[in-house]
Automatic annotation (TrEMBL):
InterPro entries assigned: DUF3039
Taxonomy, superkingdom: Bacteria
Annotated region described as Disordered, given as residue ranges: 1-24
Protein name per its UniProtKB record: DUF3039 domain-containing protein
Organism: Pseudonocardia ammonioxydans
Amino acid sequence: MSTTTLPEVDTRPDPTESTTDDAPDKFHYVKKSKITESAVLGNMVVALCGETFPVTKSAKPGSPVCPQCKEIFEGLPKGGDDS
């Protein structure tokens, strides 16, 4: 009888890959002032389209955007986020 040593295999998850199914399929427009509050305190936010959720991820350039939020945002007058 003989024994063999198998090569070491790294089974840790790759930090660059999402290993959870909670990744949003699209991102929504939300008031800037509410994003940090939600991320820190876990409060729910309301998107322009009316969807309510806690902020758990931040959108990166090129991320898919909710078509309803985008349409509403583009129809808003230009200006700052006062509240």
